[in-house]
Amino acid sequence: MTVFRQENVDDYYDTGEELGSGQFAVVKKCREKSTGLQYAAKFIKKRRTKSSRRGVSREDIEREVGILKEIQHPNVITLHEVYENKTDVILILELVAGGELFDFLAEKESLTEEEATEFLKQILNGVYYLHSLQIAHFDLKPENIMLLDRNVPKPRIKIIDFGLAHKIDFGNEFKNIFGTPEFVAPEIVNYEPLGLEADMWSIGVITYILLSGASPFLGDTKQETLANVSAVNYEFEEEYFSNTSALAKDFIRRLLVKDPKKRMTIQDSLQHPWIKPKDTQQALSRKASAVNMEKFKKFAARKKWKQSVRLISLCQRLSRSFLSRSNMSVARSDDTLDEEDSFVMKAIIHAINDDNVPGLQHLLGSLSNYDVNQPNKHGTPPLLIAAGCGNIQILQLLIKRGSRIDIQDKGGSNAIYWASRHGHVDTLKFLNENKCPLDVKDKSGETALHVAARYGHADVVQLLCSFGSNPNFQDKEEETPLHCAAWHGYYAVAKALCEAGCNVNIKNREGETPLLTASARGYHDIVECLSEHGADLNATDKDGHIALHLAVRRCQMEVIQRLISQGCCVDFQDRHGNTPLHVACKDGNVPIVVALCEANCNVDLPNKYGRTPLHLAANNGILDVVRYLCLSGANVEALTLDGKTAEDLAKSEQHEHVAGLLARLRKDTHRGLFIQQLRPTQNLQPRIKLKLFGHSGSGKTTLVESLKCGLLRSFFRRRRPRLSSTNSTRFPPSPLASKPAVSVSINNLYPGCENVSVRSRSMMFEPGLTKGMLEVFGAPAHHPHCSADDQSTKAIDIQNAYLNGVGDFSVWEFSGNPVYFCCYDYFAANDPTSIHVIVFSLEEPYEIQLNQVIFWLSFLKSLVPVEEPIAFGGKLKNPLRVVLVATHADIMNVPRPAGGEFGYDKDISLLKEIRNRFGNDLHISNKLFVLDAGASGSKDMKVLRNHLQEIRSQIVSVCPPMTHLCEKIISTLPSWRKLNGPNQLMSLQQFVYDVQDQLNPLASEADLRHIAQQLHSTGEINIMQSETVQDVLLLDPRWLCTNVLGKLLSVETPRALHHYRGRYTMEDVQRLVPDSDVEELLQILDAMDICARDLSSGTMVDIPALIKTDNLHRSWTDEEDEVRVYGGVRIVPVEHLTPFPCGIFHKVQVNLCRWIHQQRSVETPRALHHYRGRYTMEDVQRLVPDSDVEELLQLSQGAGESVPVDPPAECGGRRGHPLVGERLQDCQPRRGAAGAPGQPRPGHRGSGARSGDRKDQVLPPAGLGV
Fold first, then answer.
1. Where does 471-569 sit in CATH, by number?
2. What integer is the mean pLDDT of 305-320?
3. Which CATH architecture has domain 667-685+959-1041?
4. Per-residue pLDDT tens for 49-73?
5. Is the model's pLDDT at 733 over the cut of 50?
6. pLDDT tens by residue, 496-505
7. Binding site annotation covers 46?
8. Where are the domains of the chain?
9. CB within 8 Å of 949: residues ≥ 6 apart
10. Which residues are tagged catalytic?
11. Which residues cross the membrane (predicted)?
């Protein structure tokens, strides 16, 4: 294989415009750097693989190079050097710049045969030289007969393009099909052996055309042309050859012979009388005969026309390619460019936009005299469009075709500007290397750096600055690139410009620096960057505003904080004398006023009209701002220039609330006292909450009493009589006990569930679930018709107590009776400063102990919403503090050494299981406290006391210290409770108003919200939040949690059960809580999802937790199964074997009741039943108009782990109502999201066929495609 020079050709030659192109080659003008001589560089595209059809094979390239190296003749082109790169072989050839011979002859007015033979003789001499070397050209045609220089008296002919040339080996037969159809010899068409004779045929065709202007074999199609060649079908028509000599015709006739052996050779041609006359007569006949110039000119014109047609076709292909790639209609191509642009310009721009380098190269190669610098209608030259597109190859192509690197559009922008606008870094590097000017300004005065900054191209800005572009140039608005970056908020651009050393304090026409611009628009990161690079923080605009003024006016809080932290002058006055505080007070922006005051601004600085910030706030009636200014020490007696105080201005504008506040603050002593009340003291929070959870009989009350006992009292303390340890005593049998008995634990899951089979009530999906697991996921409860335990806790028992050796607590004991569970979600986990104690009895088997703890911890976890940030491993930032206490260690004879602690053998395994399951969601103590709840002085109790005291100290240390106002409110609360009458409910807004009106007028709403939260933490009040009512303060938590809920939900008050099935009148509720405002109370209970008010009836209330009916008026029967189809929804927790939060079952019922009330008409009766764990709504068919279908709703409470909701529908050839099923699937998750935000839950559709059999086939969401 021949090795060509591997150096970069650009290192030795400067490449210029394109001279021509072929299928796989492009010829460009070039200049040798060392000598300055001009050559032609032929770039031949190499074929990448042998199977590829694009490019020229290595063998053919080496053959052409070998032939060119061998020849050296005046009428044949010569080779200078050969280079090679990865894609091309570059032949440095003699520059033939005179154009085609036929084009030159067509310009003449007349031409004799004698003159024609002079040119033909040069062709013959060149061919003679080639044939003497056994080289056949095989592609002789007018396009390959060139003039070295057309501007000399006797131009010299040059034969070019040896791409098809072969050296003939007469010993080996050579066949091939190639060449141009008009000029190929018959042996090529017939695929016969080839030799030097083929060139002679081509010379005959060239001579025929030269003399007549007609092509001898040209047909309408390529196939017809080849057929004419094969048949030698030609003639000398009189129209074309009327003035042609007989010798000329003879010359042609001897060459156009089909048999190569009978065809004239090159030697014969040179000796022919027409070329070399034998006598004077022959010479005179040549002079007398003339070339048919009229036809010859038409032939030349026709050839150019064909080239134009090919050019138009090429332009159309380029445009169609671009439009198709751009998903645009070809029929709409006129819309893509203006009509005033030529089709060539359209094709060029389309090729540029389509990155079609070969197409553009081919197009420009076909345009010998096209000026690529001419712009389109919009005044944009192709080079700038290419710079905007970022294709370096196209830029190189355009530059080599003559595009000026410094060309501009009609707006004055150059290529650097266009590339910068579109963010093309590599293109900018290329343009800079080619000496494209950097800091050219357009008509608006912008440079490339301006446009790069405006479009946010930080990398372009850095590059331009590294090139040496001036970052301080100003446009016609006197703005620098930094102004552009500050206006649009491009931090990276601003940082790059600052690091490049730009002047950060240059002002634009409005007098604004970049800092003022960024401050007004709120870009705090740019403000910080500018200040770090020396920006003048107190620079003013034409109105005297500094950056802080503008940031305050636009309410840019983060910018304000940055400026203050960087040392901006907070008391700077504008031309009207207003400081930033004046602006904030006039606008009433409290957070900004607070920030400025905390920055030690002067609150009494007057403006030019003598008005202080307090005057402006009072004049505009902005009470919160007035209050804070007074708290910050503003002078309430300051006078304006017209002698008015802030109080006078407030009165004149009829802002009575502001005037009243200022009137109360006239005396400095009063104001000083109010201010002192709001300042934190050294006193720690005196009390936190201790919340106890556990199943009934676990010993919660006894534990509290023991913790309260001191050392002396414990000796005289009598033990509280405890319940019998037998299940038969603690949980009496149901009146329906005539049915076959099931597990005691199953009986005690929920009221009315005794007669439901274990399978139908388990509602679990997991195979292999044991009975023990089922027993414990429901909280044990008394049957509704059994006698109540007088000693059991009612609802939530609340007391303030001092726990001996621990400290003051607000003790909240949550009853284990499930009837109260529906209200726990509003009190159990609403305070992260509480200690949560889970109490369980060692009398139960270990499996039940474990799952009782899981039940309560799952409940607490479900109440805590997952909030950011989440720590490593998914741990919550502020988890609830939980302590586990096991009681009845004495009854179970747990071993204990003398004077030591109880040693429970399963404490480690239980604690490990619990911590593994809840460790990321709750802060569970590392120790399980095993004790006798009644032994107040035992070692175990002391260890528990010490642990509680340690946790209390940790919590109190992070709680905010008390203020005098908080202590004042605590002392005032008893009188407010007394004045509030039967209801201890107060809105937060009313609480704020009362404190401001009665105790401290300077206390803001934010201050009082903070104090209310502190009172909530101490247990003095309880803050209740709901989606349906405003924030409400429960002034006395005992009133609602113990008295109201304890009576309303207690099984001991049958006098209120005048109406059956949990549906009561307002009078029934009033009799339960006679001292309360029922209307207001029911609003709170409705917001807590304890009851559902029937607004259609006006006086009826549904409390599902109190459903007491034992029998159904209708139930499913075998006969009904024939006419019904069944379906339903089951809502289950996501986590494996996780019980639902306690009380969620009743909340689902409440939501369904609300929906029923909304859907049905006023006169429609409705009954809600409870029987065997099933609830029915017999009037569901009335929910859908024009329907007589009676539907049954089944709500069966499983073992705590799922809530199935089953709506069967009558099957009468129509589908059941989807409205009911959709509502059932929707209601529980929506209520659960509010009541148990920490527990996700999917909905599962029940199988209709299986539900009819009362079997538990359930389809999970994945099986339903949901």
1. 1.25.40.20
2. 56
3. Orthogonal Bundle (1.10)
4. 777 778 899 899 999 999 999 999 9
5. no
6. 999 999 999 9
7. yes
8. 9-94, 99-303, 471-569, 572-659, 667-685+959-1041, 692-713+795-818+832-953, 1051-1108+1128-1162+1176-1182
9. 805, 806, 807
10. 139
11. none
